[in-house]
Amino acid sequence: MVKTLQIRLSLEEEAQEGQLKHRAAKYLGLDQKEFKLKVLRKSIDARKPKIVFNYKLAAFVGEDLPALDYNFDYKDVTKAKPVHIIGFGPAGMWAALRCLELGFKPVVYERGKDVRERRRDLKAINQEHIVNEDSNYCFGEGGAGTYSDGKLYTRSLKRGDVKRIFQSLVHHGATEEILIDAHPHIGTNKLPKIVKNIRETIIRQGGEVHFNVKLTDLIIDGKNLRSIVLNNSEEIQTERVLLATGHSARDVFYLLDKKKIALQAKSFAMGVRVEHPQHIIDSIQYHCGENRNELLPAAAYSLVHQVKGRGVYSFCMCPGGFIVPAATAPGEVVVNGMSPSKRNNLFANSGIVVEIDVERDIRKYEQFGNLKGLEFQKDLERLAFTSGGRSQKAPSQRLTDFVEGRISANLNPTSYQPGLESAPLHSLLPKLIGSRLRKGFEEFGKKMKGYYTSEANIVGVESRTSSPVTIPRNEKLEHPDIAGLFPCGEGGGYAGGIVSAAMDGERCAEAAVLGL
Ligand SMILES: Cc1cc2nc3c(=O)[nH]c(=O)nc-3n(C[C@H](O)[C@H](O)[C@H](O)COP(=O)(O)OP(=O)(O)OC[C@H]3O[C@@H](n4cnc5c(N)ncnc54)[C@H](O)[C@@H]3O)c2cc1C
User: Fold this and answer.
1) 486: alpha, beta or left, given left = phi > 0 and alpha = psi -120 to 50?
2) How far is the CA of 486 from the centre of ligand 1 (A)?
3) Alpha-carbon distances, residue 436 vs 204, 384, 414 (angstroms)
4) What is the 3-state secondary structure of 82-130?
5) How far is the CA of 453 from the centre of ligand 1 (A)?
6) How confident is the model at residue 264 (pLDDT cuts 50, 70, 90)?
7) Ligand 1: residues within 6 Å at CB?
């Protein structure tokens, strides 16, 4: 017999070993030996000064604990029909895994390097300010998801089976905690191993993963995709291609546009990253002094406010994390955030971004047609490069100076390795972003007392929140003009994070193998 129950533990009870089982036994009226306990969900309620841990539990009375719900049946696909996948980010990885389950051979081409080799290029960006256009925080094995924060939160619950994605992450080395946490998080130190394990599964089952191979052209015969060109040299005939190249592969958008393959401009968001000392966020969220209780994780926040008809909101908040240089080409500065699994760094950073309506907000860019959002994004990244001093140093200002319109005489310490340069972002950012951010920060200061402080820096620019372009697809998930081409994941505009990209990869794989 299985009984579900909810138990709330205070901080003091949480600290005592065996409390959960003790309380469950009391609730069930059973001896502790008579049942086994499985945690289904764990969350922390810190809205009131008395912090509470909420548990949803299943008690297995006289039964063994069940195994994981999913049994991944990866077939031997050595001799199976191929499905070509461009890009080995979450969308490409889960598309490849799904191909294995469906009995088709995934053949993956990834422009970047494997996770180990990729590390050197990240070091070069951080320490020597050198950006490799094929290997960086966005490109390489695991895509933008590898050296990321690894938050697994998604709102796309209707778009696929989130639980399946989580269980396959556990199958490939993630801890089972992600199955129960209300805000699951893997951490950048653990992601590379998981990504490598996924690659090994694909290769072991007869699939292929090729690194340093870039899609450079698509050969189209009437309305059918005939072949793909790799590294400007090799042509491969193909019936099915999943285009999972992410939102930073601008050369892919230019290629499609040049070939007159339909694209659509899409609204997105841009702004800055704000960085506070973590203890300030902890003291606001946990109503504590400088030191939070050791049972509590570094505190997070989520903020939103409407300013002059556009949303200003926090994006990819990283407690105990780092700001990282996420540029994909020389001559641009782009910031993003990540954190290690323990979230034990001294800083809390978050993107604070403004919605950009591509139809109404950037009329100046009309000449670029469907790539207008992309060109606007590029201009802002160039602005960050020049105002940061023409390196990977990022332009920055104390939060209060930004809002009050002053240049910062000096800046706060930061986690951003390439370094910061004081710059008048209040006057440099386009008004549609800058003025809304300034108002937004004032409002956030009212919602979280202590948030609006000179001890925080803002760092520019947070420009890659989502794709500025949609690649259309029909009900078969195929491009409406080109049979055999399946736009997939975040680059096509069909995902906004690791989990939603993975789910979209699975769906595209299922669609692509139909009729093969
Ligand atoms: C620093 C950082 C932190 C993040 N933190 C989180 C987080 O905590 N949680 C979350 O959900 N999301 C996070 N994200 C976003 C998340 O990583 C993306 O939403 C997700 O990776 C998108 O998956 P994708 O497979 O669609 O595209 P990508 O991950 O962008 O993968 C695309 C892949 O295609 C390859 N590629 C591009 N062009 C070509 C070509 N021409 N030929 C061959 N290969 C090509 C690229 O090298 C890349 O590997 C973060 C992103 C960054 C940069």
Assistant:
1) beta
2) 17
3) 51, 18, 24
4) EEEEECCCHHHHHHHHHHHHHCCEEEEECCCCCHHHHHHHHHHHHHHCC
5) 33
6) very high
7) 86-92, 109-112, 137-140, 143-145, 148-151, 214-215, 244-246, 248-249, 252, 316, 324, 326, 336, 338, 489-491, 495, 497-499, 501
- Closest to 76 measured CA to CA, from 172, 197, 202: 202
Per CATH, which fold does 82-264+476-514 belong to? FAD/NAD(P)-binding domain (3.50.50)
Has residue 164 got a pLDDT over 80? yes
- Where do the CATH 3.30.70.2700 domains begin and end in the chain? 2-61
Residue type, 285: Q
Judge whether 201 and 172 are in contact, CB under 8 Å. Answer: yes
Count other C-beta atoms under 10 Å from residue 33's C-beta.
7
Domain with CATH 3.50.50.60 in the chain: 82-264+476-514
Distance in angstroms (rounded) separating the CA atoms of residues 310 and 479: 31
Mean pLDDT across 108-133: 98
What does the angle CA 255 – CA 118 – CA 206 come to, to the nearest 5 degrees?
75
Fold of the domain spanning 2-61: Alpha-Beta Plaits (3.30.70)
Give me the pLDDT at residue 433, please: 98
Which two structure tokens, joined as six digits, stand for 405?
């319109």
CA distance to 271, 282, 382, 397, 442, per residue, from 428 (Å): 12, 32, 12, 12, 19
Residue 20 CB neighbours (<10 A): 19
